[in-house]
Amino acid sequence: MEAGVYLHIPFCRSRCSYCDFATDVYRDSDTVEQYVDVICTEISLFSKSLIIDTVYFGGGTPSLLSPEQVGRILAAVRSKFDIVPNAEVTMEMNPATVTPESLAKYRSLGINRASFGVQTFDDRALKLLARGHDAADARNTYAMLRDAGFNNVSFDLIAGLPGQTFAQWRRNLDEAIALSPEHISLYLLEIHQGTPLAEQVRSGRQPKPDDELAAEMYELMLDRLALAGYEQYEISNFSRPGFESRHNSKYWTLDPVFGFGVSAHSFDGMQRFANERDSATYVELIRESGSAEVMREDTNLESEFMFLGLRLEAGIDLDRFSIRFGYDLIDRYATEINGMIENGLVEMTLGRLRLTRKGKLFSNEVFAAFV
Ligand code: SF4
After folding, report:
1. CATH number, domain 3-252
2. Which of 27, 37, 232, 264 has the smallest C-beta neighbourhood within 10 Å, fewest atoms?
3. Rounded mean pLDDT, 155-180
4. How far is the CA of 318 from the centre of ligand 1 (A)?
5. Quick one: which of 325, 288, 334 has its CA closest to 305?
6. Where are the domains of the chain?
7. What CATH number has the domain spanning 302-370?
8. 8 A C-beta contact, residue 229 and residue 238
């Protein structure tokens, strides 16, 4: 099984009102240049020699890096890892952060998949989220991606925004479908403490997100995307056949992924480990000791295998589970599973345990039974 490499690029043009990711506002090119040097150092010090079939630039807004900087990071990855010829190489890109020239150069460097941060086509909502782009930017940048030859594009869409109506969400979906990306990822808005949006909701300036409405939006998405020929392969991810995200699938099937950069997380098949979350401290740590690791823990593989397997449309392969862990899942959790089958939350088909449509809506309840 090949591994994946994740590269965290922690710079954004401005900070979105709901964001609690490890990201900094892009202030000066020296800081970015220094960061690129340091992430290359971290990669060059990696101790294993591995074959990888996915590389993923996430952030932050990786498309704020110049093609030269992206090229340097990819060269560091290539010098350390064996990348298979048909590897999936993804870059997260935000609207209005690229040009036809930069896109052509990213393509020539081997970036063959764009994860595109559309979020919504509703300008009012984009303002609320302080995304720093409008719907016209999203449409223009998407056209540029296609012109540059990107034939594997994923849209990030966000639902459950304060004040967002069902009709607005439907219009959003219709527009996304009309543009026909190969892949769509859905995020249900979470309000994180300490973010400007949390303060706006707390003070009553924005309504609280409505969970029931968010569930209806999710159901509409299931119906609309199925009709348009998208397959749901994970609870929040949909694609045209053959365009599932190979990189993200590694997280759900517990394949190893090694992360580099500030706050990057890794999984080596047994343990999870993570880097320092503060960019300046990350840079210092790598310079001083070559490592910015601040957390390492053994994983409860069985629990994760179940929890993550249930997120997948294919569900958990019960034979594979018993071979890997030496016991029968259905026997061990007979009471819980029978209860969930009776409640219509899970079903067993062809040796697999999977969520039903209702189970997808109440997935947290199902997952909690196995933790
Ligand atoms: S673009 Fe993404 S990472 Fe950057 S501030 Fe907005 S939500 Fe956060």
Report:
1. 3.20.20.70
2. 27
3. 95
4. 38
5. 325
6. 3-252, 302-370
7. 1.10.10.920
8. no
